């Protein structure tokens, strides 16, 4: 979100940023909480989750180093639309919404840059949701694994044997499928030698072959 900002604008953002640490499995904020802070991930991972009235959950997104979440707090104080919890120990930079709004009033061009970046993220989300609505469960699960592979490689993992920290339930939530359906497809991938599974993790042995399942 801040990639297009120049050094002067980045320095202003840095002035209102505060380091925060979270343990593995810790809730950063809950759906319905007051919204006054956004977070930039430095190390570790988190995920955004929404819960249905009947108790079912769906994972909306995962976040890794360089990602930002809770960014709407920079523009308004509406209540949180999802719960964000850490997957592993996480270090982040916290930016209070009121502080950021004061910075944007001083530098209107900064507000325009952030609004443009937010619009691009919203457009990408809409495209992803539209694409998923036409995909099979298998294709959605494969697509989620592929995204996690790309994220891991970006963070420095080997592009050939890529380990992902995620449970079958995590993958099912991200793909918007049942755990049973995701489990059956993962077993198919394992028999094909594309992945191998362990407790709370899986290793992708053939990322190229995985792409053949995404359509």
Topology:
Layout: H1 7-15, E1 17-22, E2 27-29, E3 37-43, E4 46-51, E5 57-63, E6 68-69, E7 83-86, E8 90-96, H2 97-106, H3 108-133, H4 137-154, E9 162-164, H5 168-175, H6 179-191, E10 195-198, E11 201-204, H7 207-211
Antiparallel strand pairs: 1-8, 2-7, 3-6, 3-8, 4-5, 4-7, 9-11, 10-11
Helix pairs in contact: 2-3, 4-5, 5-6
Task: Walk me through the structure.
This is Crp/Fnr family transcriptional regulator. It comes from Solirubrobacter phytolaccae. Keywords: DNA-binding, Transcription, Transcription regulation. With 215 residues, the chain is of the alpha+beta class. Helices cover 41% and strands 25% of the residues. The protein is built from seven helices and eleven strands. It has helices spanning 7-15, 97-106, 108-133, 137-154, 168-175, 179-191, 207-211, and strands at residues 17-22, 27-29, 37-43, 46-51, 57-63, 68-69, 83-86, 90-96, 162-164, 195-198, 201-204. The protein has a four-stranded antiparallel β-sheet with strand order 1-8-3-6. Strands 2-7-4-5 form a four-stranded antiparallel β-sheet. Helix 2 (97-106) crosses helix 3 (108-133), helix 4 crosses helix 5 and helix 5 (168-175) packs across helix 6 (179-191). The longest helix is centred in the middle third of the chain and has 26 residues, at 108-133. The radius of gyration is 18 Å and the shape is globular. The two termini are 28 Å apart. The model has no long low-confidence stretch (mean pLDDT 86).
């Amino acid at each position: 979100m801040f990639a297009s900002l120049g050094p002067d604008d980045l320095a202003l953002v840095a002035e209102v940023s505060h380091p925060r640490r979270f343990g593995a499995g810790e809730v950063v904020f809950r759906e319905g909480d007051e919204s006054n802070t956004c977070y930039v991930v430095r190390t570790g991972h988190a995920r955004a989750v929404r819960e249905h009235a009947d108790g079912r959950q769906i994972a909306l997104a995962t976040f890794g180093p360089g990602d930002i979440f809770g960014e709407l707090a920079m523009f308004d104080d509406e209540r949180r639309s999802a719960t964000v919890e850490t997957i592993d120990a996480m270090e982040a930079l916290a930016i209070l919404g009121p502080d950021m709004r004061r910075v944007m009033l001083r530098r209107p061009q900064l507000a325009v840059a952030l609004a443009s970046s937010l619009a691009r993220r919203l457009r990408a989300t809409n495209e992803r949701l539209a694409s998923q609505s036409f995909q099979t469960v298998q294709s959605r699960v494969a697509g989620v694994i592929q995204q996690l592979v790309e994220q891991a490689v970006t963070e420095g993992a080997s592009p050939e044997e890529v380990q992902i920290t995620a449970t079958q339930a995590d993958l099912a939530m991200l793909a918007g499928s049942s755990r049973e359906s995701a489990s059956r497809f993962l077993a198919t991938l394992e028999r094909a030698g594309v992945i191998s599974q362990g407790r709370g993790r899986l290793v992708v042995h053939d990322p190229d072959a995985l792409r053949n399942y995404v359509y």
